[in-house]
Amino acid sequence: MIIKVLVENYIKTTDSILSYHVPFNLEGDIAIGKRVVVPLNKNEVEGFILEISKETPNFEVKDIISIVDDEPVLNKELLSLGEYIKSITLCSLISAYQVMLPSALKAKRNVNIKSKYKTFIKLNKSIEFINDYIDKNKRNKSEIALLNELINNSIVEKNSFNSRVANKLKDKDLIIYSDKQIYRTVSDETYKYDKLILNKEQEHAVNTVVSALGIPKVFLLHGVTGSGKTETYLQIIEHVLKTGKNVIVLVPEISLTPQMTERFKGRFGPNVAVMHSSLSSGEKYDEWLRLKRGEAHIVVGARSAIFAPLSNIGLIVIDEEHETTYKQDSSPRYHALDIAKYRSKYHNCPIILGSATPSLESYARAKRGVYELLELKSRANGKKLPEVKIVDMCSEVKKKNYLISSILKDKINEKLSKNEQIILLLNRRGYSSFITCHDCGYVAKCPNCDISLTFHKTNNMLRCHYCGYATKMYDTCPECSGEIKNFGTGTEKVLEALENMFDAKIVRMDLDTTSKKGSHEKIIKDFETHKYDILLGTQMIAKGLDFSNVTLVGVINADTSLNIPDFRSGEVTFELLSQVSGRAGRDKLTGEVIIQTYNKDNYSIICAANHDYFSFYDKEMEIRRALKYPPYYYLVNIKIMGKIYDDVLNTALKIKNYLKDSLSSDTIVLGPTTANMFKVNNIYRFQIIIKYKKDDKLYSSLILLQELYLNNKINIDITFNPLIL
Questions:
Q1: Are 422 and 498 in a shared domain?
Q2: How far, in Å, CA of 725 to CA of 719, rounded?
Q3: What's phi and psi for 121, nearest 5 deg?
Q4: Which of 137, 155, 182 is the last residue in one of the domains?
Q5: What is residue 8's predicted lDDT score, i.e. its pLDDT?
Q6: Are residue 663 and residue 529 in the same domain, yes or no?
Q7: Cα Rg, the chain, nearest whole Å
Q8: One domain for residues 412 and 506
């Protein structure tokens, strides 16, 4: 028997599919989709079996060394899905398969995650026989205790009793041992989340989607913040489970997962598996196994959960569908929605895209009838959306209110006096954005990247948020020994100011405070139980979270996302402000929002303050149409990278000329320009942007371009439909 095995290649865009012979004693265990260990040069590597053949090739073939899996880790659907990912992202087939699997199942050596087992004891004779034995052996109290426990409970853990006593009973054939796999649980907590009564809008959405079960159709559920989208999902899922089918639910952020998981487990119990990057390798492996074995029928997780090994999928939900985290930023650069659409067609099931602020592309498709639009126009509890006030920080600075405006300060004091809670958003971590010398103008920059270092006061370090470089904060300027000053504001500095300003318990939630396992859950739970009065954080606190006692949301600086050099900056700003505003007044208490900005007349900020998605959509679409950006044009971003500046620039110019000559005359090729981050980790980066509506030459030209730059000192990365340029 000859098999073809796909193994990892050091060249990330090409595949190595090699032929191997299967010894006779292993033939019965061979199956497509399993991993095998094979010799390659002087090494032993793992690979996936892609083909099985009885024909013997006319060249020498080595034997495989061993078979890794008892069952295939890649089924028929995932094997074809890998081919699809390769075709739409131009990645290698091996990287497409690797991204689908938890680390324990990837085709790599030295990943050794073992399942955990416990030994249990069961009776091996009838109750009558055991009772008769007990009557005849009353003196042996240890044996009788164990047998009585088994009569009462039918099964007990072996390590609960003396091994010598248990072994004696086993030798007498009175009991038997059985090993049971023990899963590394994501959480031992139990919840109860009662079914809620739906309003008419929710009822209509549920009935519409339920009537389409069994059809590969996309629904856009556009519901204002607090409109009850999650309860709508839950009741649709209840219908799906009754048909014996399975469900995938995607959420964008790890910080959203605890509350979403709590609600799903509260409704569906152990039927829910959880998958996201904060889990240990062992936990991911166990959750994957539970789904594969059909022991859980719902998976809730981040982007990678779209590859869950579920059969017979009846529904896919993508919550907060507008979020950029659904697009992978390393190869293969897939979008979870594309994978969802593929699996939807394979399983004949609908997709629900849910958001209070749908992406422009999704809403445009809904308006054209490509997606079916479902709307939840009011909050589920009938309460009004929070009142939003815009504060002009230009005038506040004149009053020397640099961080917290007078109105925000007064509102915080008011809410604290009522024992209500506050959320404050600043989408920048650290203490200050950069440090500079007051005398000579020196700015501390990362030696590896084209960026200033961020000061983190808690550990007195300067850090690069791109490559991870860190150094101690300077006492004086390293150039002239002058005075060092810090500028810009991060969450650390705001926390310090708040602690000096208010008599309140404050917790900070950003990447620095949530690096430890379980830290997201702890902060959210502590704030939910009112151990803190104020929650200060970055964008991870802006969406999906539901706190009944939060009546005030303050945005410290609304301009942070507005100033990013990207065509989506207005959309990102509108989404962020709308989402964080929606955290206020979600229960019985009325909510208020204060947005601090230096750009009070910006349309994104005004529309967000007015809860006016439709005006924002119309204005932003005008701009996109004029500038030929999505959804009017598709984009491709080509990054050209290398260590020598002149070589990278010259190569970028050659690629630009090649594309101009190769592509349709209607296709627009822009660049080369320096990328958003021009130098990262000592690698210079240029980019070329392609805008197109339809170009039959595009894919073939890009594939040829990739082949030209294999094994080259210059690397190129190609991203279709990038969400950030």
A1: yes
A2: 10
A3: -115, 135
A4: 182
A5: 82
A6: no
A7: 29
A8: yes
- Separation CA 67–CA 46 (nearest Å): 9
Give pLDDT, residue 207: 98
Amino acid letter at 196?
Answer: L
Inside any domain, residue 394: yes
Q: What angle do CA 309, 312, 316 make, to 5 degrees?
A: 75
46 and 152 housed in the same domain: no
- Summarize pLDDT for 167-211 with one digit per residue, the tens: 888 888 988 887 776 666 655 556 788 899 999 999 999 999 999
Q: Do residue 51 and residue 71 come from a single domain?
A: yes
102: amino acid identity, one letter: P
Element (H, E) at 676: strand 668-680
| 110 within a domain of the structure (yes/no) | no
**Stated length of the chain:** 725
Instruction: Tell me: do 705 and 648 sit in the same domain.
Output: yes
Alpha helix segments (H runs only) across 293-367: 336-347, 360-367
SS3 18: strand
Contact call for residues 491 and 432 (beta carbons, < 8 A): no
Q: Could you give the CA distance from residue 163 to residue 388 in angstroms, rounded to a whole number?
A: 68
**Structure confidence at residue 115 (pLDDT):** 62
**Could you tell me which residues are beta bridge partners of residue 36?**
47, 67
Task: Say yes or no to pLDDT of 318 above 90.
Answer: yes
Show the tokens assigned to 437: 């010398």
Model pTM score: 0.87
Which CA distances in Å does 577 have to 360, 618, 681? 16, 18, 32
Tell me whether residue 132 is in a domain. yes
Q: Structurally, how many domains does the chain consist of? A: 5
- For residue 530, give the nearest of 501, 555, 502, 551 by alpha carbon: 551
Q: Judge if 662 and 591 occupy the same domain.
A: no
Domain span holding position 42: 2-105
Q: What is the pLDDT of residues 558-602, one digit of tens each?
A: 998 888 888 999 999 999 999 999 999 998 899 999 999 999 999
Beta bridge partners of 435: 486
516 belongs to a structural domain: yes
Alpha-carbon span 636 to 722, nearest angstrom: 7
pLDDT tens figures, 5-45? 999 876 556 788 999 999 999 999 999 999 999 998 888 89
N-terminal to C-terminal alpha carbon distance within the chain: 49
Q: Which of 569, 522, 516, 524 is nearest to 543 (CA)?
A: 524
DSSP state of 254: G
Question: What's the pLDDT score for residue 112?
Answer: 53
pLDDT band for 97, please (50, 70, 90 cuts).
very high
Q: For residue 278, what are the CA distances in angstroms to 248, 517, 523, 524, 720? A: 18, 7, 15, 15, 28
Alpha-carbon separation of residue 136 from 18, 123, 175, 301 (angstroms):
67, 18, 17, 57
Do residues 10 and 78 share a domain? yes
214-251 tens-digit pLDDT: 999 999 999 999 999 999 999 999 999 999 999 999 99
